[in-house]
Write a structure and sequence with these properties.
The chain is of the alpha/beta class. The protein contains 13 helices and 11 strands. It has a 6-stranded mixed sheet.
């Protein structure tokens, strides 16, 4: 009887010891953060992802490992959002239209001519309403961490686009967006939603006649070699929201989460600096290529585009939210 009891005690002790060892192994393993994005590594977002990994390696060595999957190697942006929800990736930085199924409020960033310049955008993003938008998807499992810039979109096609009617009948690649869909319908174009990675082949095959994007993304895929005509309409801001799984972020050890926040602040500042810089340098690189033409609109010419597109605001005001619209418009002027 005594022998059986001793044997049972030893068995339980061994089981507890094994459990503790296994548990310690689980918690001693570095936390894995997989960062998926769709653009080239030389774009502001691509460089931002690399900088994030490098700073994590320096400051959280042994605690956190970062893997980067650029250029849609793992997912498109829309797939990455689902990947975050299902735990297949931990970080992504989709452009705002990709969140349309999760938050109608974020369509504020899609409205044409709403934001006059980057300072206007930053004032809105840093306002109370702008900060609240980072949390707008948390009930659906997605936590916004930071806003990243990539400048303003320019239009490109197989012919010069100097006035709105020049788009009539053209097949135009757009990001999936209810706002963009209506925008190009009003311009008389045929809007064709398509992942960014498929755009070069679509241009080569004539599936689409034109597209819009930021200069850095255009250069990254050498799209200027496929469509040489560009127009700086100044209608549309291309930015990203860095997102993660809400539960994943909340369950991180406090010291790790705190340091990741510090790192994200530093990376965001650098990404936004790079976006502003590359908007000019990449544009100059593209303009230096033979046959490339960049059209700059006069104030009167720009007003013709505004007259066609700005009425879209009213269509989406109730969907986005009146107070959000007011906050964005009121952010045009600095608070004295």
């Amino acid at each position: 009887m005594c022998i059986k009891k001793c044997h049972l005690q030893v068995t339980i002790l061994c089981a507890i010891t094994l459990f503790v060892v296994l548990l310690s192994e689980v918690y001693s393993k570095p936390i894995l953060i997989r960062f998926s994005h769709v653009v080239g590594e030389n774009t502001p977002k691509g460089k931002g992802a690399t900088m994030f990994r490098e700073l994590v390696e320096q400051r959280l060595a042994g605690k956190v490992n970062v893997e980067i999957y650029p250029g849609s190697q793992k997912y498109t942006d829309e797939q990455a959002i689902l990947g975050i929800l299902f735990g297949d990736v931990e970080l992504a930085a989709p452009s705002f239209p990709k969140f349309r199924k999760f938050s109608t409020a974020l369509q504020i960033f899609d409205l044409p001519f709403l934001f006059e310049n980057l300072n206007h955008i930053h004032r809105f993003q840093q306002s109370d309403v702008g900060r609240q938008l980072l949390a707008v998807m948390e009930k659906r499992g997605i936590k916004g961490l930071r806003y990243w810039d990539n400048g303003f979109r320019v239009m490109s096609a197989n012919k010069p686009l100097s006035k709105p009617s020049d788009l009539r009948g053209l097949k135009f690649r757009i990001e999936p967006s209810y706002v963009f869909q209506r925008q190009y319908e009003r311009l008389g174009a045929i809007a064709t939603p398509m992942p960014f990675k498929h755009l070069p082949d679509a241009l080569r095959g004539g599936v689409v006649d034109g597209y819009e994007n930021a200069w850095s993304n255009i250069l990254s895929l050498k799209l200027h070699l496929l469509r040489p005509y560009f127009t700086e309409v100044g209608h549309s801001y291309l930015g990203y929201m860095v997102v993660t799984n809400h539960a994943f972020w909340q369950n991180l050890p406090e010291d790790v989460r705190s340091e990741l926040n510090v790192i994200l602040d530093e990376v965001t500042q650098e990404v936004n600096r790079l976006a502003k810089e590359k908007e000019e340098t990449d544009k100059k690189t593209i303009m230096a290529v033979e046959n490339v033409q960049v059209l700059h609109l006069s104030g009167e010419e720009k007003k013709a585009w505004e007259d066609v597109m700005i009425p879209i605001w009213q269509e989406f005001e109730s969907v986005i939210g009146v107070e959000i619209m007011k906050a964005a418009i009121n952010s045009r002027n600095p608070i004295e």
